[in-house]
Amino acid sequence: MFEKEIPVLVVDDEPDVLQISQLAMRSFEVFGLPVTVHTAESKAKAIELLESEFAVKAQVGAKLNVAFIDVVMETDTAGLELCDYIRNTLRNKFVQIYIRTGQPGVAPEREVIDRYDINGYFTKVEATEDKLYTLTKSGVRQAYFTGLSLALARNLQGLIAAADTRERLAETLQRSWDAWDVDFRIGYRVDGTTMVRGIDEQAFGELADRLAAQPGTAIGDRGDRYAVDGNQLLVDVAADETTAAVQHVVVGYAPPPEMLIPLIHGFARSFGALWKKVAAREAVPA
C-alpha cells in the first residue's frame, strides 16, 4: 500500500532464465500493486544494483521485497556470497531471499537455509510460474509485515524517550514519518492536536471525519474500530481511563492489507496511552 509497485530482484547468469522469469512475472500483483522485476546476471551486477536502485533502507517493505538468487554464477558460491552480503553487509533483514539453483549438490538445502538466513530454496526444474507466484506473494507479505513491525517498534522506542511533553511527542512522531523512505499521506489527531505529512490539516480533518462516519469494523472490545475506503484507512482509538482518543489516517497506493491493520492499531493505541500519561503530568501544577 505504500509504494506504486512491488520490486523483485532476479539474479542469474543465464539470460534465458532472466527472460523467462520476467515473462512469467509480468502480470503478478500483490496487494493490488504490480510486480516490477529487476534483473542482474552476476553477483557483482546485483551488488551494483543494490547499492544504487535499492540503496535506501526499506522500513516497510519498500525498495526491495523479494530476491531470487542463483548459486553458481561467477564462481560456484557467488549466489551464497550475495546472500551473505545482503544480510550481513547491508544488514537487510526485510528482503525475502529464495535460492533458485540448477546444481543443488553444490549448495545443499539445509546447509544453505541454516547458514545464510534464506527464506526458501528450490531447483530451477521446480521454478514454474505458479511457484514463482506463490513465493513472490508470500515473500512480499512477510517483508511488509516484518518491516512495518520493526519500524513501528523503533518509532515507539523514540516516543517513549520523548514522553516528557506533548510537544516533544508530536515532534518525534513527525520526524519518524520523515525518516521513512516511502511516499504516503498520513495524519494523527489527538485531543485537538493534529500531526500530518503529505496532506494539509484541513484535508486531513475532512478525510478523517468522512471515514469516521462509515460503519467500520470493530477492533477488540474497547470501542476501537477501523474503516477502509479504497486506498484510505482510518484507525479510530476510543478514549478510556488510560488512553487518549486517536484518529489515524493513512492514504497509500492500494487498499491496506488486513494483516497490517493490527500493527497500525497497536501503535496508535500506544501513542494514545503515552499522550494521556504526559497530558496528565503536564496538568499538575509545578
Helical amount among residues, as a percent range? 40-55%
Share of β-strand residues? 15-25%
Query: Largest beta sheet, briefly?
Result: 6 strands, mixed
- Give the end-to-end Cα distance, rounded to a whole number of Å: 46 Å
Gyration radius (Cα, Å) is 22 Å
- Strands of the biggest beta sheet: in what spatial order? 2-3-1-4-5-6
Write down the overall geometry: elongated
Which architecture name of the largest domain does CATH use? 3-Layer(aba) Sandwich
Structural class category: alpha/beta
How many beta-strand runs?
A: 12
Mean pLDDT: 89
The number of distinct helices, counting runs of at least 4 residues, comes to 8
CATH class of the largest domain: Alpha Beta
Low-confidence stretches: 56-62
Order of helices and strands: EHEEHEHEHEHHEEHEEEEH
What is the CATH H-level superfamily of the largest domain?
Response regulator
By CATH, the topology of the largest domain is Rossmann fold
Number of domains: 2
Topology record:
Blueprint: E1 6-11, H1 15-25, E2 29-30, E3 33-40, H2 43-52, E4 66-69, H3 78-89, E5 96-101, H4 109-116, E6 120-123, H5 129-161, H6 166-178, E7 185-190, E8 193-197, H7 201-212, E9 217-219, E10 224-229, E11 232-237, E12 246-251, H8 261-283
Parallel strand pairs: 1-3, 1-4, 4-5, 5-6
Antiparallel strand pairs: 2-3, 7-8, 7-12, 9-10, 10-11, 11-12
Helix pairs in contact: 5-6, 5-8
Structural commentary:
This protein has 8 helices and 12 strands. With 286 residues, the protein is an alpha/beta fold. It folds into 2 domains: 137 residues, Rossmann fold (3-Layer(aba) Sandwich); 119 residues, Beta-Lactamase (2-Layer Sandwich). Strands 2-3-1-4-5-6 form a 6-stranded mixed β-sheet. A 6-stranded antiparallel β-sheet has the order 8-7-12-11-10-9, with helices on both faces. It is elongated and about 70 Å long. The termini are far apart.
